[in-house]
């Protein structure tokens, strides 16, 4: 049975978690998603969950710094419905695949950009890796920086097992307060969920920007 999005063509220029998960869901519902990879393949293939997030997609190898490959990509964009990208602000402009350039070729194209701090903020040039965003926003402290985890603390509740002798090996979190580096996709997931919520609440717009810190 064809999915409800079977007539949509999507170009996926994203990496990490937020973009690939967004386009994964589009593919799950029948959209024709083509993941554009650089020569040598996506450098994030070793990420946990990579194969799941990129299931159901086609793959094309294009060097967007090469004029011929860039023309090929622009032709693809000319017949696409949606483009999702997660380059650092300014990169798409230098490559000649920015919103204004592609919108001139295809006025129907919905152009979704995922960044760490947005395109116009004072932190726009900061690297946007999940771990760096999590550290800057305090997520490393809140997520697992408290004995038995952070849920009780964030809910303002006392530990219900304070008088129970439980082995540290059976507890979540470290045996002392303080930040811990977790393998957390939450900043990217926040961007993804915020984008999904925005889509459900409003009519589609030609351009959409979503920052991980706005999740």
Descriptive account of the structure:
The chain has 215 residues and is of the alpha/beta class. The chain is built from nine helices and six strands, in the order E-H-E-H-E-H-E-H-H-E-H-H-H-H-E. Strands 3-2-1-4-5-6 form a six-stranded parallel beta sheet, with helices on one face. Helix 1 crosses helix 9. The longest helix has 16 residues. It is elongated.
Structural class: alpha/beta
Mean pLDDT across residues:
79
Largest sheet: 6 strands, parallel
The count of helical stretches stands at 9
Number of strands: 6
Basic shape? elongated
Q: Determine Rg (CA atoms, Å).
A: 20 Å
The residue ranges in which pLDDT falls below 50 over 5 or more consecutive positions are: none
Q: Output the helix-strand order.
A: EHEHEHEHHEHHHHE
Question: Distance between the terminal alpha carbons, to the nearest Å?
Answer: 34 Å
Strand order of the largest sheet: 3-2-1-4-5-6
| Helix content percent band | 25-40%
Strand content: 5-15%
Concise overview:
The protein is α/β, with parallel strands linked by helices. It is built from nine helices and six strands.
Features:
single chain; 215 residues; 6-stranded parallel beta sheet; 9 helices; 34% helix
Chart the SSEs and their pairings.
Blueprint: E1 9-13, H1 18-28, E2 32-37, H2 50-53, E3 58-61, H3 67-78, E4 82-85, H4 91-95, H5 99-105, E5 110-115, H6 130-137, H7 139-144, H8 151-155, H9 186-201, E6 207-211
Parallel strand pairs: 1-2, 1-4, 2-3, 4-5, 5-6
Helix pairs in contact: 1-9
């Amino acid at each position: 049975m064809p999915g409800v999005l079977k007539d949509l063509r999507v170009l996926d220029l994203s990496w990490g978690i937020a973009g690939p998960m967004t386009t994964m869901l589009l593919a799950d519902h029948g959209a024709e998603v083509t993941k554009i990879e650089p020569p040598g393949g996506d450098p994030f293939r070793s990420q946990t969950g990579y194969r799941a997030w990129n299931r159901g997609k086609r793959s094309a190898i294009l060097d967007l710094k090469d004029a011929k490959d860039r023309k090929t990509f622009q032709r693809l964009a000319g017949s696409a419905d949606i483009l999702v990208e997660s380059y650092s602000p300014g990169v798409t402009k230098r490559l000649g695949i920015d919103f204004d350039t592609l919108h001139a070729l295809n006025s129907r194209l919905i152009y979704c950009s995922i960044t760490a701090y947005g395109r116009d903020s004072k932190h726009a040039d900061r690297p946007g890796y999940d771990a760096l965003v999590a550290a800057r926003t305090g997520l490393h402290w809140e997520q697992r920086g408290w004995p038995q985890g952070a849920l009780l603390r964030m809910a303002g509740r006392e530990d219900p097992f304070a008088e129970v002798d439980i082995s540290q090996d059976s507890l979540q979190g470290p045996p002392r307060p303080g930040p811990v580096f977790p393998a957390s996709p939450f900043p990217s997931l926040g961007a993804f969920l915020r984008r999904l919520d925005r889509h459900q609440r409003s009519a589609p717009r030609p351009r959409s920007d979503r920052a991980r810190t706005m999740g």
